[in-house]
Amino acid sequence: MATQKDSLVAYRKRRHFKRTPEPRGTKQASASQSLFVIQKHDASHLHYDVRIEINGVLKSWAVPKGISTKPAEKHLAIPTEDHPLSYAHFEGLIPAGEYGGGTVMVWDIGTYRNIKKVDNKLLSMDRCLKRGRIEVWLDGKKLKGGYALIKTAGMKASTKTPDRRARRVSSDKKTYWLLLKMKDAHAAKPIRNATKSALTGRTMKQIAQESSE
Ligand code: MN
After folding, report:
1. Mind listing the pLDDT tens digit for each residue in 44-75?
2. Which of 14, 75, 136, 185 could form a disulfide with 112 if both were Cys (CB 3.0 to 4.6 A apart)?
3. What's the gap in Å between 21 CA and the centre of ligand 1?
4. Residue 7, SS3?
């Protein structure tokens, strides 16, 4: 593959690595299995960060309402800066005053496979990203089955987005993404251990307490 420009520039610019425990990270060659992680992040507004490994980095979306297993529930997903692969195992406390200050939990982690086909052929994840339609089969500790991320372009965010916060965050771009569960045998199943870390079994409170000791 041709050398691509380092897409982690924005990630690094926003952080002081002497003051935050988050990894600096580097762009890495992809392993045979692709990684996904969903981090629960109690920053100024509680949200979930959905991150999918594409081209050696974690492509990222902030999802204020979190993940639903019900196909009818489409949740707003706002693209954020690429994160390094090593971020997938980051759980802890970003100090107050730093970028994204607050508790981070690895809410779910696992591998995914691309299931997006066009004319019966798999479309590369890179193409899916550019076209704005990602379909992946998740094999996480909590989430299983098909999930889609769909770029919704050209809508007037002020009238179509479901809540005030969503309108505010997406109003500058007028495009946003939606995250939804696809219809399969895993749809509408309750999520087990929804309040606990998929990595350490800890609650948000425990992570915050143990990180500040
Ligand atoms: Mn976040």
Report:
1. 999 999 999 999 999 999 999 999 999 999 99
2. 136
3. 14
4. coil
- Ligand 1 centroid–CA 122 distance in Å is 30
Rg (CA), the chain: 17
Task: Reply yes or no on whether the pLDDT at 85 is more than 50.
Answer: yes
Task: Count CA atoms closer than 13 A to 64's CA, side-chain side.
Answer: 16
Task: Kindly state the tokens that stand for 176.
Answer: 């946003």
pTM of the complete model:
0.87
Q: Which residue in this structure is represented by tokens 């999918």?
A: 52
Cβ atoms 88, 58 nearer than 8 A: yes
| Integer Cα distance of 71 and 178 in angstroms | 12
Q: Compute the distance between CA of residue 33 and CA of residue 31 in angstroms, rounded to an integer.
A: 5
Question: Counting runs of H as helices and runs of E as strands, what totals does the chain give?
Answer: 5, 11
- φ, ψ of residue 159 in degrees (nearest 5): -110, -25
Counting every residue written for the chain, the total comes to 213
pLDDT in tens, 119-149: 999 999 999 999 999 999 999 999 999 999 9
Query: What residues pack around ion ligand 1 (CB closer than 5 A)?
Result: 41, 49
Check if the beta carbon of residue 87 is closer than 8 Å to that of residue 22.
yes
The DSSP symbol for 23 reads -
Q: How far apart are CA 75 and CA 174, in angstroms?
A: 16
* H helix intervals, 6-144: 9-13, 125-131
Q: How far is the CA of 171 from the centre of ligand 1 (A)?
A: 19
